[in-house]
Specification:
Distance between the termini: 32 Å
Helix content: 25-40%
Oligomer: single chain
Length: 338
Amino acid sequence: MAKRIAAFGEVMMRLQVPGYELLSQADSLKYSFSGTGVNVSSALSRFGHEGYLISRLPSNPLGDAAESYLRKLGISQSLLSRGGEYLGMYFLENGFGARPSRVTYTNRQASSFNTAPEGTYDFDQIAKSIDMIHFCGITLAMNDNVRQHMKSLARAVKANGGTVVFDCNYRPAHWRDGGYAKAKPHYEEMLELADIVMMNEKDAILTLGMPSDKCEREEQLMDLIPDVARKHRISVIAGTHRFINGDNTHSLRGFIYKDQVFTFSNLLTFSVYDRIGAGDAYTSSIIHGEIEQFSPQQTVDFAAAASILAHTIVGDTPMSSVGEIFRAMTERVSDVER
């Protein structure tokens, strides 16, 4: 049941400090290219779908390098545009013990993607060439021009009978002055267009301003998510709860709300090698489960296992196959494969 799936989003250059050094200590950086759209479209390509990225890369050797990297990830180049001079960048310092990992963004507002002029994307033609599209709330936070591109593309896909996926990914720092009050109308507009939504109770509380008299996270989730689904006529809402333990392991529990019923994965505890991009592994796996018509339990278990595997692989982009994820659902740790 392979589908043509596109993701709309910025390609970023990831500059990683070696080991556990601080940026102020390091004298070298390892670079790669990433972004939510890159991660989701690449993961779905690995699952056997046709993965496309709708983005704009600079017209220079940096853009050439990014395009070459995307090609290695199995992402189709046909919906990429070229223009402008810059890529957004982020610097990653790996955390250790009590010190968390730290991401520092630079150059985002000047990037080719975030300065793409009107007319860069042929929304109607794109909508006719794909079955499904993924949008990220971080992209929604960039600027008014990008927001217009995003909403116009979502409307075109919806009008053409395609499926719209929206991952809330609310990040207060990206909205700067105004916070959730500024974000709320844009989120509500995207929720009206979405069929599948990635969010949890924090998104409902912070972004939509929804109150809850419950104290525990799971109680808040079960209190608020059905109201979001009902109000915006969303068929599927999924997400995770993460807990960071005293021994530096993490625990994760996935959920999916479908047909007015919550389904949860087991609470899974694991060590973390690289956390960045693990949420995108979960999202792409929920999408795949819906396409393949897995049961809600199989979908959420598949997605949780995919997310845990993503924590074991360096880099943002999920690299696990469907077979590897199914095996991780039943096996915890094994010896060397021979």
